[in-house]
Amino acid sequence: MQAILAISEGARFSDRQASELLQELKDSSRSADTIEAAFARLAKALRRLPERKITAEEAAELVQALGLTCQPPLHFLPPEEARILGGPAAGLTTTSGRATDVAICIPKGSLYHKDQLNDHYTHRRAVYLGVAAAALKRHKWVLSQEWTFLRGTDRKPTLVVKCGDASTPTASTTFNLIPVISAESFPAARLAPQRNNLRPKLASNAAPGREYPATPHYNNELCWDMWPACDQAQLQSQLQAFPGLSDCILLLKAWAQYHGLCSGPGALSGWLLACFAGRIASAGGLVTGTTPLQMLKAILLRLSRSSTPFLGDQSIAAPATANASAPDVQTFVSAFECVFLDYSGHVNFAAGLSGSKAKLAQTAAKRTVALLNNTVEPDAAFDGALLTQLPPGSAFDCWWHVTIEGNSGSKEDYKDLAVWREVERSVQSIAERALGARASLVHVFPRALLQLAALDKGSVQPASHSILVAAQMDPEHAGSLVDIGPDPNSPQAADFRAFWGDKAELRRFQDGRILEAVAWQVSPAERHMIPDHVLQYALTKHLGSADVSVRGCAGLLDRALATAEFPLERQMAAQRQLQEATDLLAKQLRSLPLALVITAVQPRSPAARRTAAFPPEAHPLAGAPAEACAHVLKVPRCLQPVELLVQLEGSGRWPKHPEAYHKTKAALGLQIADELASGFGLRSSATEDFVDVFAGGFAFRFSLHSARDDAILKEQQRLAPQAAAQSAHAVNLRSLKHHALIAAAVDVRPALATTIRLLVRWLGAHLLSNHITQEAAELLATRAFFGPSPLPVPGSPLAGFMRVLHLISHHPWKLRPLIVDPADAMTAASVAQAQQLFDTARAEKRAAPMALVTAHDLVAEQWTSTTQPSAAVLRRLVALAKSSLSALQAHVFDGEHSQEEVFAKVFCAPFMDFDILVTLHPDSVPGSSRALSKAPMQGHLSSRGGKRDRDEAAGANGHADANGKAKSGRTVLTHIPQGVLDKHGHAKAQRELLTTLVDAPWACDGIHRR
Amino acid sequence: MQDGFLPLQVLCHQHQSSRFIFIKQHRSEAVGQAADHCILFVTGVPRSHPDPQEGLKAAFSCLGPIESVTLHPAKVSAVVCIAEAEAWTKLQQAAAADAVLDLSLPEGKQNGVRGWVEEHKQKFVSTAKLRQQLDDWMADHEAKEAAEKAVDQSNDGWTVVRRKGGRKKTTDAAGTAVGSVAAAAVEARMKANKEPRVLENFYKFQQRNKRRSDIMELQEQFERDKRKISELKAARRFKPS
């Protein structure tokens, strides 16, 4: 009952949000009167077009750009009628920025017998529109004309006419002129999907009695012109029966637009979506009186449950009311990847929709329904479902730009699809086969065609030279070193060998099976690049003699994580060594003969949960085996300790006095240090708060904890909550809980750890690491992987990183805290409480600008505060995230810029934004060689004000080398010079090692104070 | 030299490096300046200087008798008042001659990065020293507790015995779990702790009040929603892009 109440509460607010969204959508649409007035003028002009005879030569010149080989003459007659098509005709509101479709009916007298064959109609249609365009151009109210291609089909040029007054171009109306013909123009039976209407020209191909392949797409386009508005009447009747349906369709279109489903060729068109909604209404799928949002949910639910290849199911996609003369539904099923027939039963509205696109829409619909039913975070869920614009390729994890040189295809024979569409389809099938289990969904984005100013020059070609292939990866199999094939004796073995060629080999597996397999030889650090190699190999092998180049993005950001001194391979080895050293130390600690037994040793450090920007490297002076640090050329002076919490068994003999208890714990720490030194020969140093141990090449810092700590903290919280929050035990507990939260999330999502590392590096590169803590960065990234989202979980670090940048740049920080709950531990009540606490804090002006809420921190005070980051820093962070995201999207989706340029745009701080730059000496900053943003040389910055000039002139850091003494006076923190090591020996040098001083907060500390 | 600031090199002995401090003469027409005084703004004082006031006093004493040194709370800038009218001129001459001022630090104190490193090292004392410190503290603490006990006992020799609280032991001295809780006992306890059922809408006035409070709650919710919607509108969340 409570759940139902919660849904209705959430739904009420969602409905209000939906009505606000509808209001905005309607406000931005143009009024029907304006369109009517402009259309009347256009229709009048079309009716008055003069009758003309167009010769074959004149016709060929008019439509030269189409590259059609036949040039039949045309008897041009003025159109029989011009009428508005699609949504506006059915009474739906037109969204802004969209041209209104206008059908101009070509009279039967302009067509010839058997024009349906061999593109004759296509050519005549283009010439007819060309003549109309030339005539319309003379009118003053025609502001501009442009040629586009309907549904990205080169056979369907349409004329986009902008009408209005030159004095007020903003008040113009745009029409898309689409030539259509009457339903009787051609025999319908000959345009069934299994029929052929494109015969080969060459005598060799045109052998008598030969069976020609079916031309379903060509036939479908012709049928579409014959029955352009068959569903209009039915849709109109449904709109009258369901008063909210019109609003629902508007929401549906907005949803498709926000999810990038209705842009470009092969997309879900607005008309298709409107018909789909109308069909569901007529099939009894909607209830009168329901709100538009409820209707939308019902429609999306049906879409998500589509039974392939039908959109929806067969009763929706192929209604029984179809014409008796219409072809059998099964002919459409066998000819097209996706089927949604019109009421005439002749036209497949979903002919251009690929199977992968349909699956993408299906998944998006499913996720949106889940979001709209989300009761824990209804506001964020609604935001993700209907208010967030997602770029078209953001649902994928990997992207490749495939460029094929020298395969322009032959134009000797007529083809059902254009050459470029056939290439795209081949790429799709090869990529699907090659990636196999590595990818759960592979999609090739059909390329849009270039818009032309006129059809008498230029040529029709795709707007982009390269084909964008994208895939949703399966994290478990994406980096597999071996593709396992069938048994060599099975019938599929020959097919497998034919596909993989020389790469296929027989392999014996551990379980004794001998199978066909393909092995990919790459280093462990390059396993994420295997899909790139797979695709390159398969496409090169199967796309004939064409020169194929595949540009993947998997390694785009690798440079951010690896340096020349510490490459990815060594990082992986270091991580493994750290794990081993931690386990060994924990074992040693538990075996110590102490007064109290150590029950558990829990790590609580970013390095232990694999989210540190760089894992600590085995140090030769910290007890690392010689082979582990054979590559170390310079011995580092500073070590980042891995923090551990040592849990002691409970005892009633601890002192009751808090300070005495603390001192007793310190004494026990000392005893542990002694025992480790005497028992295992580990060097350790103790303070009152912690013990530092060098073990296995790493520095560990552990603090002790017992049940008594909890009792003391509880007492402190009762007496002085503020002081209790800052106590060492509170801090330890907090970081332990955080570690458990993030470590569990990292284990569940394989791409999360690398995403966090990328984010930390990105923050550091933009000089924000002292504003956004490591923990805050981890929470941000975790939210991108676990929060309610219309997109699937990122399957690659690049996708994850882009998702985090999107989150940072689009989250309404002023209105809502960011809920991070990977364990699903929060309820609707706790989220509401967190929101209420945030609202109260905001009203009292003490809310953190970046509020990060977790299940154990509803107040959002643990990792961020009012000053860290400040509102100004948050604004800068959002702006940087936006610019970095757009640079990545431009490269990944549109193929713009080289990898180096993109890397520079994303990972180099814009130093021009700063007034003062304090340049630290690299020797004094541990890890300075890993910095991504190198400070510009003095004088490279153009001056913005006197302040910068002054600082540059006087030496911004206030230090100056004093008469040659500076070098000797300088403190080197990066490494221990070899001379010092040789002179004093390792034992003495070991005492000079510094723990914790790796980060340089001290460098900023002084500046902050000023 | 910009904005009237005069850069002057100062030397820190211990780490053999120098740095600049910036000095500007105070000229206030409103207040007027005594002809025999010179007031200087000094900025860029080393942050980690243990006693900047004394250091500045010693450094500027070569210009004349120092009347006062007033430090800014940030401890990196100060106002130095010198009872010598020609102090500014002397300073300018010294700067022109590339003179280096001696801003002496006490022995053993480091500055800059080396200071930070020293500070960091200070956190770690030797094991023996730390053990000694802990033992001393514990001895003091025990002595204090014994003294308190003695005071208690001095009151006619009576010791107040207090009841010891604590939970039921579930483990013995060897750490083995002892005792158990019967499921029936837990259920019985839960039943006993269950709050008595109260019929909230038994009387008519209760029903009326409940209706009224529900309506008020709905109205409040509506107002909250309206406020949220207006905030979302202000943030342009509904704007179609």
Automatic annotation (TrEMBL), chain A:
Annotated Low complexity bias: 954-966
Top-level lineage group: Eukaryota
Keywords (A to Z) from UniProt: Nucleus, RNA-binding
Pfam hit, one: Nrap_D5
GO MF annotation, one: RNA binding
Annotated compartments: Nucleus, Nucleolus
GO BP field: rRNA processing; tRNA export from nucleus
Residues covered by the Nrap protein domain: 101-236, 246-388, 395-543, 569-734, 750-903
UniProt GO cellular component terms: CURI complex; small-subunit processome; UTP-C complex
Primary subcellular site in the record, as a coarse category: nucleus
Chain positions covered by the region annotation Disordered: 927-970
Family: Belongs to the NRAP family.
Name of this protein: Nucleolar protein 6
TrEMBL record, chain B:
Domain Ribosomal RNA-processing protein 7 C-terminal, first and last residues per copy: 122-240
InterPro entries per record: RRP7 (IPR040446), RRP7_C (IPR024326)
GO biological process: one example: rRNA processing
Pfam families, per the entry: RRP7 (PF12923)
GO CC, alphabetical: CURI complex; UTP-C complex
Family, similarity comment: Belongs to the RRP7 family.
Entry protein name: Ribosomal RNA-processing protein 7 C-terminal domain-containing protein
